[in-house]
C-alpha cells in the first residue's frame, strides 16, 4: 500500500474520505428496506391516497436507518430500541411543534439526553440518534395541517410494519446469522492460506480477525436462554472456540511465508459448507507420516481439534441493574461523554436559533443535519459533515431530476423503492452514498405528504449546507481540542495488549485453563489491533494535525501486527518438540513493548533497550526492531505537516 505525494495527487484525507468500503452488497437488507418503505406507498396508492402511504413510510424509516447485520436477538434489541426511541421523539416533536417557546427547549433537551445515553453502548447510541432525528422531524409536521393523532397513528403503523419485515423470518431462520458468521471464519482461513503474495495475505489476515471478532460477538450477544435454541448456539460457540488452534497455526504459517498443502485449504472450504448447511463436519485430512515441522504439525492438530469441539462453560447473562450501574459509572468516571453532550447541545441550540432568525422554508432541517453529523461515536466530525454535504448535493440533484420529469403514481412508488434500497447499500459502503439516497427519498415523501415543488429541493440544499457549516465552525474548528492529535494513546493501548499476549503465548500451556488464557490473550491482542486500525481510519480523513499524525503513525500499526504474528508463530511450536523461550528473554520482550508504549504516551523517542539474542525469538526481535524504527520515524510532537508526510512515505512504501 502506498500513499501519493501531496503535490502529485489528492490529499490523503480526501482519498480516504471518498473511499467506499469493500464489502459485499447486503441484498437481504436492501430487500427489507424496499419492502418496508415502498409497500405502504403502493398499498396507499392502490387505495387512492398515496399521501397516507408517505406518512406511514416515514414511520418505517427508523428501522431502515438502524438496520444492521447480525443475530435476530441482537437485531430485535437494536431495532426495537431505535423504533421506540424514534416514536417517543416524534411524539415530543408533534406535541411541541408550531410553538417555538416549547419546541426549541424540547429539541435541545432531547439532544442532550441523546448524547448522554450513547455511553450505554452502540444500541443505545443508535436509539439516541433516532430519538433526536425524529423529534426534529416531528416539530416540522405542524406545517402539513394534519391532526397530531393522525400523524402519530400513521407513524406507529409504519414502525410496526418495518419491525415485522425486519424480524418476520426469525421463526424459521433463528440461527442462520450465527452459522453464516462461523462459516465465514473458515472462508477467510482458506482465503488467507491460498494467498500467494504477502500484501494479499496481510489483507486476508485482517479479514480473518474481523470474521473471528464478528462471530464471537454474534454468538455471545445472541445467546437465547430458551432451551430449544440454546443447544444450537452452544454448539456453534464450542466449534468456534475449537477453531482457535487452527487459526493460530495458520497465522504462524503465513508469517513464516509458507503455504499449507491444498488438502488443508479444501478442508476449510468443506467446513464452511457443512456449517452453513447444518450438516456433520467432514473428517480432517490425516497428518503426513513422520511430519517434523512443528508449525505444520500444529495446523493438522488444529484440524483434528475442530472435529472434536470444545465444551465451554455457559456464560451467565449480565443483570440489567448491573448494566445500568456500569453505565452510570461510566458517566461519573470521565468527562468525555459530558463534553460530547455539551458540543452536540450547543450546536443544536445554535441551529435552532438560526432556524428562528433566518426565514427559510422547513428550517428544522438545519437542526436535523447538525444532529446527524455531530452525533457522538460515529466517526470523524469533519468527515461526516463533508460527506453529508456532498451526499446532499448529489441527492438534491436526483430529487430535482425526479421533479423535472413529473413522475407520479406507480413511478413514484418504484423510485421510492430504488432510493430505499440505496439507503441500505450506502449504510455499508459510504456515509456520503447513504446521504445521496436519503435526500431524494425525503423529498419524495414531502412531495407526497403535502405540497412538493422546487422550493422543497432548494430548501433541503440550503438547510443542509447551513447545518454542515454550523458543525464545521462550532463543533470542529472552534471546539477546543477537536483538531489536536489524539491517536498516540490508542497506539500505546495496542502495545499493552500485545505485551499481555507475549506473556501468555511464550510459555508452555500445560493445562486446559492455560491454553484458554492464551487464546483469550491472542483474541484480545488482535481485537485491540483491529479496533486501533478502525480508529486510525476514522482519524485519517481529517486535514488537521490529528489526521496528519494518524497518517504518520500508520506504520506503527503495521509493526504491531507483525510483532503479534511473529509471537503466534513461536507460540504454536511450543510443546511440539520445541521448548518455551527463556523467561528472561520473554521479560526483555515485554519490557521493550512497555518502553515503546511509554515513549508514545510521553511523546519522546524510545530509549535503546536490550533484546533477546535467541534464534527461537529472532523473528519476534526483527519485527520489534522494526516497531522501534517506526516509532522513531514520525515526529511525536506535531510540527510542520509536509515534514511528517515526507518522513512517513519511505517507510510506508516498504511496508
TrEMBL record:
Membrane topology listed for this record: Multi-pass membrane protein
Keywords of the record: Cell membrane, Membrane, Transmembrane, Transmembrane helix
InterPro entries for this protein: Memb_transporter_dom (IPR049453)
Main location: membrane
Domain Integral membrane bound transporter residues, every copy: 351-474
A Pfam family hit: FUSC_2
Transmembrane parts of this sequence: 30-58, 79-96, 102-120, 150-170, 394-425, 431-449, 461-479
Taxonomy, superkingdom: Bacteria
Subcellular location: Cell membrane
Family that this chain belongs to: Belongs to the YccS/YhfK family.
Protein name listed in UniProt: FUSC family protein
Lineage of origin: Bacteria, Bacillati, Actinomycetota, Actinomycetes, Pseudonocardiales
Amino acid at each position: 500500500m502506498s500513499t501519493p505525494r501531496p503535490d502529485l495527487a489528492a490529499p490523503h484525507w480526501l482519498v480516504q474520505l471518498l473511499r467506499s468500503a469493500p464489502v459485499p452488497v447486503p441484498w437481504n437488507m436492501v430487500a427489507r428496506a424496499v419492502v418496508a418503505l415502498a409497500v405502504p406507498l403502493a398499498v396507499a396508492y392502490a387505495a387512492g391516497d398515496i399521501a397516507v402511504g408517505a406518512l406511514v413510510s416515514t414511520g418505517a424509516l427508523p428501522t431502515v436507518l438502524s438496520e444492521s447485520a447480525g443475530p435476530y436477538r441482537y437485531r430485535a434489541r437494536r431495532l426495537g430500541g431505535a423504533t421506540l426511541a424514534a416514536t417517543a421523539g416524534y411524539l415530543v416533536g408533534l406535541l411541541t411543534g408550531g410553538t417555538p417557546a416549547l419546541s426549541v427547549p424540547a429539541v435541545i433537551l432531547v439532544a442532550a439526553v441523546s448524547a448522554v445515553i450513547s455511553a450505554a453502548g452502540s444500541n443505545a447510541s443508535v436509539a439516541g440518534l433516532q430519538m433526536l432525528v425524529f423529534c426534529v422531524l416531528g416539530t416540522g409536521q405542524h406545517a402539513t395541517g394534519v391532526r397530531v393523532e393522525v400523524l402519530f397513528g400513521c407513524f406507529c403503523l409504519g414502525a410496526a410494519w418495518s419491525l415485522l419485515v425486519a424480524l418476520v423470518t426469525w421463526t424459521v431462520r433463528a440461527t442462520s446469522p450465527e452459522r453464516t458468521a462461523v462459516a465465514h471464519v473458515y472462508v477467510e482461513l482458506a482465503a488467507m492460506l491460498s494467498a500467494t503474495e504477502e500484501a494479499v495475505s496481510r489483507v486476508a489476515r485482517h479479514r480473518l480477525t474481523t470474521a473471528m471478532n464478528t462471530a464471537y460477538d454474534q454468538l455471545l450477544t445472541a445467546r437465547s436462554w430458551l432451551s430449544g435454541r440454546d443447544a444450537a448456539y452452544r454448539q456453534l460457540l464450542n466449534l468456534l472456540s475449537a477453531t482457535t488452534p487452527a487459526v493460530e497455526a495458520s497465522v504462524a504459517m503465513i508469517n513464516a511465508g509458507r503455504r499449507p498443502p491444498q488438502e488443508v485449504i479444501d478442508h476449510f472450504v468443506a467446513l464452511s459448507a457443512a456449517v452453513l448447511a447444518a450438516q456433520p463436519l467432514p473428517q480432517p485430512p490425516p497428518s503426513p507420516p513422520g511430519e517434523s515441522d512443528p508449525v505444520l504439525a500444529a495446523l493438522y492438530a488444529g484440524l483434528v481439534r475442530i472435529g472434536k469441539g470444545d465444551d465451554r462453560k455457559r456464560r451467565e447473562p449480565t443483570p440489567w441493574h448491573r448494566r445500568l450501574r456500569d453505565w452510570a459509572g461510566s458517566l461519573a468516571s470521565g468527562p468525555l461523554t459530558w463534553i460530547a453532550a455539551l458540543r452536540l447541545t450547543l450546536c443544536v441550540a445554535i441551529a435552532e436559533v438560526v432556524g428562528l432568525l433566518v426565514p427559510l422554508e422547513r428550517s428544522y432541517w438545519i437542526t436535523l443535519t447538525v444532529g446527524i453529523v455531530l452525533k457522538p461515536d460515529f466517526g470523524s466530525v469533519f468527515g461526516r459533515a463533508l460527506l453529508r454535504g456532498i451526499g446532499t448535493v448529489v441527492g438534491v440533484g436526483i430529487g430535482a431530476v425526479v421533479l423535472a420529469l413529473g413522475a407520479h403514481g406507480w413511478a413514484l412508488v418504484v423510485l421510492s423503492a430504488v432510493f430505499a434500497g440505496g439507503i441500505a447499500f450506502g449504510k455499508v459502503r459510504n456515509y456520503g452514498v447513504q446521504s445521496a439516497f436519503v435526500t431524494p427519498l425525503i423529498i419524495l415523501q414531502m412531495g407526497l405528504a403535502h405540497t412538493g415543488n422546487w422550493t422543497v429541493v432548494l430548501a433541503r440544499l440550503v438547510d443542509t449546507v447551513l447545518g454542515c457549516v454550523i458543525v464545521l465552525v462550532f463543533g470542529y474548528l472552534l471546539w477546543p481540542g477537536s483538531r489536536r492529535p489524539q491517536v498516540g494513546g490508542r497506539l500505546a493501548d495496542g502495545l499493552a495488549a500485545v505485551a499481555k499476549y507475549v506473556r501468555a503465548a511464550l510459555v508452555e500451556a500445560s493445562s486446559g485453563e492455560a491454553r484458554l488464557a492464551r487464546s483469550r490473550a491472542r483474541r484480545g491482542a488482535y481485537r485491540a489491533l483491529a479496533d486501533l486500525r478502525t480508529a486510525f481510519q476514522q482519524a485519517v480523513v481529517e486535514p488537521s494535525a490529528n489526521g496528519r499524525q494518524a497518517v504518520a503513525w500508520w506504520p506503527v500499526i503495521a509493526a504491531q501486527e507483525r510483532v503479534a504474528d511473529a509471537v503466534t508463530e513461536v507460540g504454536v511450536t511450543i510443546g511440539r518438540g520445541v521448548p518455551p523461550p527463556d523467561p528472561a528473554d520473554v521479560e526483555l520482550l515485554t519490557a521493550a513493548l512497555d518502553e515503546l508504549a511509554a515513549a508514545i504516551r510521553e511523546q519522546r523517542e524510545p530509549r535503546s533497550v536490550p533484546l533477546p539474542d535467541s534464534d527461537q525469538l529472532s523473528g519476534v526481535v526483527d519485527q520489534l526492531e522494526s516497531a522501534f524504527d517506526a516509532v522513531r520515524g514520525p515526529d511525536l510532537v506535531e510540527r510542520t505537516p509536509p515534514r511528517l508526510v515526507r518522513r512517513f512515505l519511505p517507510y510506508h512504501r516498504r511496508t
